[in-house]
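Aim 2 progress update. The chain analyzed this quarter is reproduced below.
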Amino acid sequence: MRIGYLVDTSGNQFELRLPIIEKPSRKLLNALKSVNNARRRQNLVELSLETFFPVTIIDVWNWKSKNDLFLEETKAKLLTLVKDDIESLPEEMRAAIKNLAKIRRTGLLKIWKLTIDAKDGKLIEIRRLLEDWKDIDLETLKKIKISSTHLINKRNKLYENMALWLKINFSYLIWEKDFSLKQIVESAPKISMNSTDVAIKIAAKYRFFASLHFLRQKLKQLDSNGWLIGGTMSYSTLRCYICNLIGKQTPQLHIVCPNGHKCDQDFQACKNLLSYLPEDLVFNKSESKPDIPAHLTKYIIKCSQIQPVMLE
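Predicted structure tokens:
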């Protein structure tokens, strides 16, 4: 997933990437295997899961979704089980079941606890149903937490290394000041399913996982002697850097200005931000050929020179 684009004064271009699907580490697999998984295959069947472990962020999202669905299915089974005997149930349980549509995990656990000492046949059936759900739910959530923590820590370490690489290789870094994807999403006009804003809303899961604010925090921590230079985000992607006219928002990566110049949005934003570069700055001579270390070659990609296309 592209999380950033970099253009320097020497014409070098780099794409910053965050991996979505990677081979899981042995450490992660061992941690997941350590969770009580005696019923692992049964759990996969119950949740309709295709993988033994949630090893990618997409797996994590899928497991969360299937676990939420399993909770709703359990509530439906519970309602079917007691529909003819609701009035005979203990008062506290009866009140909870009548409000079952709004109940989530905590509420279902509360109903289960009310059946622990039960001796009545119907309450025992309820307990068995909820214990089966609870065991699967608990194991699933443990695995989701293990994977989520691992993936977030790995992402944060990558951002630390990216920030350090930027600091080492470039005399100055111009970025969009006060940039906030959250602000863009919340202020987006709800006008069309084809608008860029709607596309960003649909990609909310990726936005939250990317957490670019963490990368920006790392860059701020490395800032010294005016290394970070703040530009403005006003029309930085839409303003044609060639003719200065404003193009229309689209969900596509490329923007076409009124004069027909078609350009990558992120590249265009970089070119516009470079206009904030003070003319009296002094650069390092080695900056024209920044080196990408081996551990970052999969995440910082040197790109071919992007040239705008003139549409006829």
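The first strand starts at residue 2 and ends at 7. The chain has two domains: 26-147, 170-177+210-310. These observations will guide the mutagenesis experiments scheduled for the next reporting period.
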